[in-house]
Amino acid sequence: MRLLVTGGAGFIGSNFVHLTVRERPDVEVTVLDALTYAGDRASLAPVADRITFVEGDIADAELVDRLVGAADLVIHFAAESHNDNSLSNPWPFVQTNVVGTYTLLEAVRRHGVRYHHISTDEVYGDLELDDPAKFTPETPYNPSSPYSSTKAASDLLVRAWVRSFGVQATLSNCSNNYGPYQHVEKFIPRQVTNVIDGVRPKLYGTGENVRDWIHVEDHNTAVWAIVERGQIGETYLIGAEGEENNRSVVELILELTGQSSDAYDLVSDRPGHDMRYAIDATRLRTELGWEPRYSSFRDGLAATIDWYRANEAWWRPQKDATEAKYAQLGR
Ligand code: NAD
Ligand code: TDX
């Protein structure tokens, strides 16, 4: 089977390629990635001789047409993915997340190629801290940020291309991922690398916001389950019962690194900061028989901290520029 992975040099995409090469040797993988600030060929170095890498933009219609025409399946991870960046400069989010997805959809429509769309739980907006509800596939879309609104727009394009043109697509909306190869702009790697550098972790606002954490490998095994056993046109929510507030995540990082649990700073809040995300993944478990491999957030986080300690050469080149951006925002 010939698989085209977009965004395969990013965090989740590179982990997906590693998993696929390791566990599905029959799959021929081509990665299409523009190598933005968030993409790094070094993330694919361990599998470089097992895949084909193409540097290019998902909004380049000619290139996309050629690559999609040579594939049996497209899995679309590429995106502008960071909420804080989307508040500073929304345009690349509209271009990549909306126009880029449109370009891929037109190509899979022309070539009749199976397509899987990777999205986020942030399309549903947020929940109150004391709300017993979780997101389900029936929750109305209500995105808050330029990032989540462009992801929501891309999801709606996929649904329309399924209904209007019969495109063979599935969608998944996953909660917050953690694990190796995540850019140091994101919450967990930022705090872990801060602690390694002797800098105090930085919590936005009061630190009460809740995210539903899932190990990136569990996201990716769920994507394979949906691609292989999911129903065309359907949306699957991916999550692993990992609700934690940001303060408790920072306290756990401090504990696991031998620091005092109050050695963090509260900084100014993100504008429009979503309070809580929570996923009901019943359908994935009951319909598709998926189960996460990482049952303990504590163990997964400890392994992730070990990975950042052992792979400083991978993240160090990004660290200063990332912190300079945050310094400008006062965060
Ligand atoms: P990331 O920012 O780490 O990686 C994105 C990758 O896409 C990079 O390699 C980048 O170079 C590439 N890219 C960006 N614009 C491109 C373009 N125009 N053409 C080709 N390549 C381009 O992101 P991530 O965290 O790995 O997220 C991957 C996907 O998963 C995204 O669609 C995101 O919305 C979704 N998602 C992420 C999370 C999370 O917690 N990180 C959770 C749910 C869903
Ligand atoms: O330094 C920080 N301090 C802090 O308190 C950073 C960078 C973040 N935070 C907070 C904001 C959020 O409540 O931590 C939480 C997680 O922040 P991010 O890592 O920026 O993730 P989030 O905004 O929740 O979005 C992530 O999950 C859903 C991904 O970046 C998205 O791509 C995905 O769709």
From TrEMBL:
Protein name per the record: dTDP-glucose 4,6-dehydratase
Family: Belongs to the NAD(P)-dependent epimerase/dehydratase family. dTDP-glucose dehydratase subfamily.
Origin species: Actinotalea soli
Pfam families: GDP_Man_Dehyd (PF16363)
Database matches in InterPro entries: dTDP_Gluc_deHydtase, NAD(P)-bd_dom, NAD(P)-bd_dom_sf
Keywords (A to Z) from UniProt: Lyase, NAD
Domain NAD(P)-binding: start-end pairs: 4-299
GO biological process: nucleotide-sugar metabolic process
One term of GO molecular function: dTDP-glucose 4,6-dehydratase activity
